[in-house]
Specification:
The chain has two helices and 13 strands. The chain is mainly beta.
Amino acid sequence: MTTMSRGSAGHGAELPDELAVLVERVGRSTVEIVSWNGRGLGAGVIWEGGIVITNAHVVSAGEAEVCLPGGDALPARVIALHESRDLAALQLRRGAAGLLAAEAGDSDALRPGELVLALGHPWGLRAQASLGVVHRASVPGAGGRRWIEADVRLAPGNSGGPLADARGRVVGINTMVAHGLALAVPSRAVSRFLRGARLAPAA
């Protein structure tokens, strides 16, 4: 069962029906990832073409296990990695047919104050959601990287999960917490990452 928090509110707060539906919708393309080296535990997003997008720091090894929303656990391999951008792409070794890909949103269109939600598996709790607003939509960082900064709650296990807008479109990949605010890789950066990667064919 998916639960949600906002700010300092506890998990399990009641939601209007439309928000609950939104969480369920985004959750259908959100997965849990366990790195086979035993060190990585986080979330991922099913992207177009059945590829799973997550953080590079979640899958430091070349292999991982992807737990689908329905409960199936499937082996996957890393097919593209960008450590400085903290992005990785995984290809499921089997069972990729019929997966529901997330709808990607335009991170460049985000404005401060817009409602966003983060999904993931903080502290190993499956399918948890956190509600907040965009603080700054384009935060400069080292090496020319830019981030989405939002006041959603993240914890270990949220890494690699989706940051979605009020229409359920994934506008970012949650990565870390800085100065008490969540940082997410913009969806535009994910698109550039995939265009520049040489994606190997599925095994």
